[in-house]
Design a protein that fits this description.
The protein is mostly helical and 504 residues long. The protein is built from 20 helices and 3 strands. The protein has a 3-stranded mixed beta sheet, sandwiched between helices. Strand 2 and strand 3 form a beta hairpin. Helix 9 runs parallel beside helix 10 and helix 10 crosses helix 11. The longest helix has 32 residues.
């Protein structure tokens, strides 16, 4: 057998083993977040640490390095097709990010994340920052250590920002957030000065838990998800994960006094899951399966949550869906009433419940605090005060508890520091994708109004979803949009939408 054929066989074997580990890890973590008993946290952490050690060995052993080196040379010589070339490129990059990090450090970090999540869940419920704080300090220390091992000369926080969205850095986000703040802060101030807010009366009240779960499934169907390839469950903090195009996981959180929270949580998480379900099935069980980055993933979730779900065109469809599940509750409500109620721009304490306009301010607060932690200018003990001061300064709010403050998000307990900025960047990607979609001839408003979102899905499937990890995030978005990343699409969208709602 020629050397290149033997190496390709080894490449496929490596990818099959990595898929098996990913499948096991994702399933274990999903169970841990949704149904495992409290005492299961420690053995789950041990299992995840062992799996992480094995993944490290698979990727970082000398034989894998030799195979990837030979195939890299073959790719450079034009001897591999595009798919094989992409597989080698992504695997070589993942190996390079791990090879200088000892296996016990990687495994220790995986174990720490699992333990920290369990502690965070209890701490949030008990409003007990003190019990979680030591884990956050350990998390920052571990992430700094890993970043320095990966890229000794780079800023550690930049290393993690780039890990979540390749091609980004503090300098990138500083420019981006400056442009966003210059749009959002004056708009929020103008709305406050206007002194008028749409009524939320039409969406207030008590809504049965089980009926809300039926509503959730219906919304996922409207979005276009395949129920046969989806597991839906409940958790403290909603999330989505996937192992391949044929199995996505969604976990939601139902509040009986807030049906709209579940509506937009499902539209958001459904966007994530649609991305995963629509990746080219040929990439299943390979390194090319999965969303390419956090920012691109958030562009899809926030696209369906906001650009579709909070559009005036979609309001009649959403209203009809609510009426089916809660007969009589919305009979006197107009689509315009629902549109205004679900687009009320008003500072709030909780990021996941924030309106489109104030949402970026929540992200900026987290971004600033993460930098202070990574730079050694603050420790976990300082976070509640830093958090509360910024919510007072940026949003004009007093934070009554850490549960509604610095304990509200799961991300820091998962080791996802550097992830938050991608939420806002994803929103900006989405606005640019929307403009490109309209420019290419898609009747976006017509699709939303009809409830048949296939024209929107088809456009995104062709330009974003199907590619999986074959194209890096910024080139992917630029190719889809036909131009460079430009936040002005996002700021123009926010300005036009909220100026119209508030008659500014």
């Amino acid at each position: 057998m020629p050397i290149i054929e033997e190496d390709l066989r080894k490449l496929d074997s490596l990818q099959a083993h990595l898929f098996a580990h990913r499948h096991a890890t994702t399933s274990i973590m999903f169970a841990g977040e949704t149904c495992d008993p409290e005492e299961a946290a420690s053995p789950r952490a041990e299992a995840l640490a062992t799996l992480e050690e094995e993944v490290h060995e698979l990727l970082c052993c000398e034989k894998t390095g030799q195979v990837l080196d030979r195939l890299g040379q073959a790719a450079a010589a034009g001897e591999l097709d595009e798919t094989r070339t992409a597989q080698v490129r992504v695997l070589a990059r993942e190996r390079s990010e791990r090879v200088d990090v000892p296996a016990d450090v990687q495994a220790g970090f995986a174990k720490l994340c699992c333990e920290a999540q369990s502690v965070w869940t209890r701490a949030k419920g008990a409003n007990d920052w003190t019990s979680f704080a030591p884990y956050l300090d350990q998390m920052v220390s571990s992430m700094r250590t890993i970043a320095k091992l990966r890229a000794p000369e780079a800023d550690p926080y930049d290393t993690w920002l780039d890990a979540y969205e390749r091609g980004t850095s503090r300098a990138f986000y500083n420019r981006f957030f400056a442009e966003v703040k210059n749009c959002v802060v004056p708009l929020v101030a103008a709305i406050r000065e206007r002194g008028w807010q749409p009524s939320r009366g039409c969406i207030e009240g008590t809504f049965d838990h089980d009926t809300q779960m039926e509503l959730a499934r219906d919304l996922l169907r409207v979005e276009g998800l395949r129920a046969s390839a989806l597991t839906l469950s409940e958790t403290e903090h909603p999330f989505t994960d996937s192992v391949c195009s044929r199995h996505a996981y969604i976990a939601t959180h139902v509040y009986e006094d807030d049906v709209i929270s579940n509506v937009y949580s499902m539209l958001h998480e459904g966007g994530h899951a649609m991305y995963e379900q629509n990746i080219d099935p040929a990439y299943d069980r390979t390194i090319l399966n999965g969303g390419v980055s956090s920012g691109v993933h958030e562009s899809q979730s926030r696209f369906f949550e906001n650009y579709v779900g909070r559009s005036e065109a979609f309001a009649p469809v959403l209203l009809d869906t609510l009426r089916r599940h809660f007969p009589g509750r919305f009979d006197g409500v107009s689509a315009r009433d629902l549109y205004l109620a679900t687009n009320r721009a008003e500072p709030g304490l909780v990021r996941t419940e924030a309106d489109e306009l104030t949402y970026p301010l929540h992200i900026i607060i987290r971004y600033e605090i993460e930098q202070l932690l990574f730079d050694g200018k603050a420790t976990a003990a300082d976070v509640p005060a830093l958090w509360n001061e910024r919510y007072r300064s940026y949003l004009g709010l007093e934070v009554p508890s850490d549960t509604l403050g610095c304990l509200q998000d799961v991300h820091w307990s998962c080791g996802d520091m550097g992830y938050f900025p991608t939420y806002a960047l994803g929103g900006a990607y989405g606005a640019q994708l929307l403009d490109a979609m309209r420019a290419s001839g898609v009747d976006f408003e017509g699709a939303c109004a009809s409830g048949d979102l296939e024209p929107i899905r088809a456009w995104l499937r062709e330009r974003v979803w199907r590619h999986g990890r074959t194209i890096d995030p910024i080139p992917l978005i630029e190719a889809a949009c036909g131009g460079p990343i430009d936040a002005s699409h996002y700021t123009r969208y926010l300005t036009e939408k909220f100026s119209a709602i508030y008659n500014l």
